[in-house]
Every structure is written in structure tokens, then in C-alpha cells.
């Protein structure tokens, strides 16, 4: 087996592990000498195909894989499935609507639709290809909330909780409680946590295995997303997320839940 084949095996293993992996585990599972695994990982790390955690020295897939996946998404029908639904939501709400995908503990905006006639134009934090903060954006919070408790703790502990506005949650314990509430409600809200004067609502998208892999979000000026409108917006998003999930093979009960305002 040559180095390329061994590199592919390592990348495949990291992909299926869905967590960080050490050299000893690769040695055990793939029967590679530790020296060989270390040499290959060093090369993969050089080209950002893997990342190495500072605290544990373990490895996970890198951002370059995410860049490759974005190119794949351009031809993958996931975006094609979601696009008409994004447009429909944008038309119904008059708000910027976007799609966020989860990949190896990170989320990235992969598509968006903006109203043709913007009301109260504002430079929203929405850009295709942009990594979304995990602790203060509705789009990512609603995905993170449905990950395993171990994954949630790992992400919170390994990443700084940057304070963007006075409303940003920067206490790890409070963030975990907030994510628990999101799981219970079935949707997430960002109320001026990332940008003052800006609000967002997001619902989770699930695949055929029931795993939350993406989210659909609307965002706009806070005054256009009052409590009176929010209940209607949540229903629109929940139904839309359910429709996309079904097209991806998800067959469980409705994503939308009863909410109290």
C-alpha cells in the first residue's frame, strides 16, 4: 500500500470517527506503524487537510476538506433541493434567508437569498462560504444543540466565546443551558447576540439517519422581527426545514413543536 492509499485511509477514518483521533488509535485500527501515521499526518497537516488539537495533540479533518466540500456542494443536489424553498421563504417573509451546513464541528453558509427590494438595508452577517460563530448565531446554535453532549462540550471548551454585543452569551454553562432550551423548542433565535439591531431565527435540517446536518435561517432588523411576527416565522421555518429533511430521507415526526410566546 502506497502513501496516497494510506493517506486516504486516514482521512476516511477521521471522517467516520466524527471526533478527534490520536496516532495510537490510528495505529490500532488501521495497522499503520506510528511513525508512518505521524509522517502522513504531518503532510496532511501542512496542507490543512487535517487539524491538530493543541490540548490533546489528536487529529480531525481540516478546513481544506471543508473547502473541497463547498465545491462539491455546488454540484450536489442538497442546495438544489433547498434553493426553491429558500426563495419561497424569502418571498413570504421579505427577509434574507440562508442555508448553513455542519461539517466536522464547524458550520458554514452555503447558500442565501436576499429580498429584491431591501427594506431598511443593513450589512447582515451573511456571506456564502463564511464560517458562522457557533455560540451567537441562530443558524449554528440550532445545529450544535442537536449534536452529542460530548461534542457540544468539546466545541465549547476548545473555542473562545467571543463577545460581539452586550447580549452575546460567553459563559459556557449558560450556553449549554441555552442549547438545551433550543433542543426543547425545536428552533433557535439570535436576538442581537452577533450584531446590535439584528435578529435571526433558525430551524434544523436532518438527514436520513436523523442527524442534524444543516439549518435554514431568516434574518433581518429586530423591529421587523417582533414577537408578533416571530411565531409565524418559526412555523414557516419549521415546515420548510421539515420539507428539506424529508427530501433528504428523514422520516420521523414533524420538526415543528408547540411554542409559547
Question: Can you walk me through this structure?
Answer:
With 261 residues, this protein is an alpha+beta fold. It has two domains: 3-61, Winged helix-like DNA-binding domain superfamily/Winged helix DNA-binding domain (Arc Repressor Mutant, subunit A); 69-247, GAF domain (Beta-Lactamase). Strand 3 (96-103) and strand 4 form a beta hairpin. Helix 1 crosses helix 3 (34-46) and helix 5 (77-93) packs antiparallel against helix 9. It is built from nine helices and seven strands; from the N terminus they run αααββααββαααβββα. It is 45% helix and 17% strand. The protein starts with a helix and ends in a 14-residue tail after the last helix. The strands form two sheets. The chain has a five-stranded antiparallel sheet with strand order 4-3-7-6-5, sandwiched between helices. Residues 254-261 have low confidence and may be disordered. The protein is globular and about 60 Å long.
Describe the structure concisely.
By secondary structure, the chain is α+β, with helices and mostly antiparallel strands. 45% of the residues lie in helices and 17% in strands. It is globular.
Defining traits:
single chain, 261 residues, alpha+beta, Arc Repressor Mutant, subunit A, Beta-Lactamase, 2 domains, 5-stranded antiparallel beta sheet, two-stranded antiparallel sheet, 9 helices, disordered C terminus
Amino acid at each position: 500500500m502506497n502513501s496516497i492509499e494510506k493517506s486516504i485511509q486516514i482521512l476516511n477514518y477521521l471522517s467516520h470517527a466524527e471526533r478527534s483521533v490520536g496516532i495510537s488509535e490510528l495505529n490500532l485500527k488501521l495497522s499503520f506503524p506510528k511513525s508512518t501515521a505521524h509522517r502522513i499526518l504531518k503532510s496532511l497537516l501542512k496542507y490543512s487537510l487535517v487539524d491538530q488539537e493543541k490540548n490533546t495533540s489528536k487529529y480531525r479533518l481540516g478546513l481544506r476538506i471543508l473547502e473541497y466540500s463547498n465545491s462539491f456542494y455546488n454540484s450536489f443536489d442538497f442546495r438544489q433541493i433547498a434553493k426553491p424553498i429558500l426563495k419561497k421563504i424569502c418571498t413570504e417573509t421579505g427577509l434574507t434567508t440562508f442555508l448553513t451546513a455542519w461539517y466536522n464541528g464547524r458550520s458554514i453558509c452555503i447558500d442565501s437569498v436576499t429580498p429584491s427590494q431591501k427594506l431598511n438595508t443593513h450589512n447582515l452577517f451573511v456571506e456564502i462560504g463564511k464560517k458562522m460563530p457557533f455560540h451567537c448565531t441562530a443558524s449554528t446554535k440550532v445545529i450544535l444543540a442537536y449534536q452529542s453532549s460530548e461534542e457540544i462540550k468539546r466545541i465549547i471548551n476548545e473555542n473562545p466565546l467571543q463577545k460581539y454585543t452586550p447580549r452575546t452569551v460567553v459563559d459556557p454553562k449558560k450556553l449549554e443551558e441555552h442549547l438545551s432550551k433550543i433542543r426543547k423548542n425545536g428552533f433557535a433565535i439570535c436576538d442581537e447576540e452577533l450584531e446590535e439591531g439584528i435578529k435571526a431565527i433558525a430551524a434544523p435540517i436532518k438527514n436520513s439517519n436523523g442527524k442534524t446536518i444543516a439549518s435554514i435561517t431568516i434574518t433581518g432588523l429586530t423591529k421587523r422581527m417582533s414577537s408578533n411576527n416571530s411565531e409565524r416565522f418559526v412555523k414557516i421555518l419549521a415546515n420548510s426545514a421539515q420539507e428539506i429533511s424529508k427530501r433528504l430521507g428523514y422520516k420521523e415526526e414533524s420538526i415543528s413543536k408547540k411554542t409559547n410566546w
